[in-house]
Amino acid sequence: MKKGNDIKKSFSSRRFKMGGFQTLTMVIVIVVVVILNLIVGKMGISVDLSSDRIYTLTEDTKKLASQLSDDITMYYMCQDGNETAQIEKVIEQYDKLAHITVEEKDPVIYPNFSKDYTDEDITDNDVIVVNKKANKSKLVKYSEMLIQDVDYTTYSQTNTLDAEGKLTAAIQNVTSAETKKIYTTSGHEEQALDDAFTDVLSKSNVTTETLETSSKTAVPSDCDILLINGPKYDFSNAEYTMLETYLKEGGKAMIFLNAGTSEETPNFNKLLKTYGVNTSGGYVLDSEKCLNANYPNILKPDVQEHDITTDVGQKEVYIPTAVGMTSEKEVRSTLKTEALLKTSDSAFSRADRQETSMEKVEGDLSGPFNVAMAVTDSYAEKTKGSGYATKLVIFGSYHFASADFAANNQFGNRSMLLRSLSWLSGSETSTLAIPTRSLDEPMVTIKEGNRIFWTVFLVILLPLAFLAVGFVIWYRRRKS
Question: In sequence order, which residues have a C-beta less than 8 Å from that of residue 467 and are 6 or more positions away?
Answer without folding.
Answer: none
